[in-house]
């Protein structure tokens, strides 16, 4: 999933959860599905950010020197401007891109 090219809004949008829960039949299950997907996206975004920041890392033993790298700052700002993981997960759920399965319901 490429979270950089998502069409999710960058700010909070009020939604009717009863309409969103028509697939699952339960508002709580819908929130749980979106929450788990948001955690997956958050972990992916964090690992990408750390990997990119490691490229510009400078290791100094001197604590008195504070070295600010312009590239690190720009990368951090870019990631701050991206939509939050919950908004991306909600948009994916609404577009039907999130696969979910409840094994307890399948047994019945």
What does this protein look like?
This protein has 108 residues and is mainly alpha-helical. It has one domain (17-97). It has helices at residues 17-20, 27-55, 70-81, 85-95, 103-107. The chain is elongated and about 55 Å long. It starts with 16 loop residues before the first helix and ends with a helix.
Offer a concise description of the structure.
The protein is mostly helical and 108 residues long. Helices cover 56% and strands 0% of the residues.
Keywords:
single chain; 108 residues; mainly alpha; 5 helices; elongated
Find the count of extended strands (DSSP E, 2+ residues).
Answer: 0
Radius of gyration: 19 Å
What general form does the structure show? Answer: elongated
Question: Would you list the SSEs in sequence order as H and E?
Answer: HHHHH
Largest sheet: none
Runs in which pLDDT lies below 50 for 5 or more consecutive residues are none
Annotation field: number of helices: 5
What number of domains? 1
Percentage of helical residues? 55-70%
Helix-and-strand structural type: mainly alpha
Proportion of residues in extended strands: under 5%
Average pLDDT confidence is 82
- Determine the N-to-C terminus distance: 33 Å
This entry's quaternary arrangement is single chain
